[in-house]
Structures are given as C-alpha cells and as structure tokens.
Predict the 3D structure of the following.
Amino acid sequence: MKILSIDTSGSSLNVGLLDSSTGLFFAHEHTKDEARTHSMKILPAIQALMTKAGWSFDQLDRIALTAGPGSFTGLRIGAAVAKMIAGQTSAELVPVSTLEMIALSARLSAADPNTTSYLPMINARNHNVFAAICRPGKPLDDEGHWPFGDFLSKAPKNSIFVFEQGTGDDFKAEIQTAGLKFIEQPSEKLIDAKLLAQQGLSVARADADSFAPRYLRKTAAEMAWLKKHPDANDGDYAKYVSEV
C-alpha cells in the first residue's frame, strides 16, 4: 500500500511517503524550513517526494493526516491539501489524532517503550492545553481541551508529558512539583512522518468530502459570534462563516 503522510498541526511541516509492501520511505527534509510556512511549502514538498519515489498521484492508496487538535490555520492547510488529493484520486483519507501521534513518536525513541504513560500536550493559551493520556497498548484516553491544572490532576503516576520545544515553559514547574517528568521535542521530531504513515494502515478511512479537522474548541472569532447570537445552535456554523 502506498501512503502519503501529512502533518501541519505544529511549527514544522512533516510529510512522507511509505510503500508498506517494500518498506520504502521518503521524508521531507527540514534543513531549509521556516516555522509556520506550511501553505508555501506543503505542495512543493509533496511533489518533490513523489518525484523522488517515482510515483504518480493516482498510485496513492491512502493519505494519513494528523486531524487535530493543533493550530487552527495549520490543521486547515493539511486538511485542504489532503481533501484535494483524495478528491482527485482514489486515495482514502485517514485521519489520526495529533495528540496520539505526539505520544507514539515519543514512545518510538524511548528506552523502555512499554511501561510508561505518555501525556501529549499542546499549549492552547491562557494556561489551557489540548492533552490526552496514552497508555501502552490502549486507546487514547481523556483527549480534550483542558485547564492545565485539571488535566494535571488526572496524570497517572510515573507518566511523562510530551510537548514541542519552546511551548511548555508555563507548565514545567507544575509538572515537576507534581513529581512528573517531561520531554521537550524539537518541532521537526514532534511527529514522525513514517510512524504516521504506518498508523494510517490500521485507522478507518473518513469521507473526504465531509471531513473536518478536530479542533476540540471553537475559534475566538466563532466564540465572539456566538456571544452576539445567543440563540444560535452549534449547527449554525454556515451562518457564522457567511457573516465573518
């Protein structure tokens, strides 16, 4: 199976190509990347990998995509590209939790990958986080948008927080006070593109036309709109978009 993996949820762009039958893998190089330039880099990066692998887009079987949570703009860029490719080919769109991939990528390089719970975390500002609990061999637990103190109280003993380098300074003291550890991953290593592609082998496909990223919270603009429209329902998103 030929799989394209796409991650635009964080500061670094992560894309890769995996042929699961041969183990052949190509990854986007980060040497010339600048943070938050996904919209300019993603299509040339994918095309370069396709050329390097000698593949055509109609050979793709699946597109494994980090589906959120993460940067609103970043997630939209990845989703738009994945939906476009899936819509023009027979490739299946396979969404994978961003938090799960952060945890699994950290576990991949761990000395003892089977004994520790990882707590993947994304800074959501105002001392809030997107976070979850990833235990060995079990589904992701408690994935959500949390006040950090509330999530910290759920942390299992001997678990390790994982977050992107430079994003967790506000939380380090509380983590250490609670007797827990943390790992700061460089942005280009936060999510392993090959592991994301491999994860795409076992995850259920989504309908590309109706797929939307899992933001886990509303944008500031949407919350402001809902405040002005107290009678609106969650299903009124189209009205919000048309007004904004």
Q: What stands out?
A: The longest strand covers residues 141-147.
